Amino acid sequence: MTARDHAPRRRASLLLAGAVALSVSGCALLPGQASPSSSGEPVETLTPTPTDDATASSSTSPSGDPTGPKPQTPDPVALADGMRTYMDAASSVTIRGTLHDTERDMQMKIHAEGSTAGLAQQVTSDAGISRTTLELPGGGTMESIVVGWDHYLRVDQQWIDTRKPKLDSPLRKRVGEWVKVPRQQSPVEQYKPHRLLKSSFFGVGLTPEDVRRSPASTVALGDEWAYLLQLNKAGKEGGNDQQRQVWLSTDGNAALLKMTYGTYPARTTLSFGDWGSSRENWKAPAGARTLKEFGDEDL
Fold this sequence. Notes:
By secondary structure, the chain is of the alpha+beta class.
């Protein structure tokens, strides 16, 4: 099998990494509301920006249009800061969307629980306890468990048939069995939400000036109102592939509901839900075989 054969899977893995990184990014709360963590500490209120249509009348359309008055749009910086804060505190999330591959597009569903959050996890991001499940509808499932520094995963036969790992991949011989993979080579890290925070909202990903210049508005998203924040890179780096659109809830949590990024026609769209807290008492799978070497092409 040649390097060319593996290229589509590697590209897909990178897209997936970006997708999940975005999984826990956050939103601000109204006074007195607690984040998904158990701290119960209130977060600064989002400050609305006056708009002409802020008091729009309620919609009663049976077609799924939003009901209730149209909320005022907060300042874009407040929205971005709130998004990071809220999602950083969350320890569980479900992500659905399309994984673009050179051969075909695959629908995916990721559910992450445990020590998967953002900034608070940077120091101990390789530790903690978490469980992540990645499903490709009609195309298999990969499960992963992280206990401290140990990373475990298992796949089913449909995953092997769809992903087509290299012929000598150890997973082909251990379908349905847990294996322990080297932490430095673990694909599990790709699916941790804190990766998104670090790569997409800080440093070269997005500067404070970029956020300040990013337009925000209140729009209809299905049958509910949502804040739309268009995160654009400034200057020469502001191409279409750098434009990230995020839709946030207007219920006082500003939870991330949806996001798009990338270039057309392969622009990725992801939806988010089930934000909250989760248990962290998973144990290392008994009898897992330890793999000394493991790479993207094995998965």
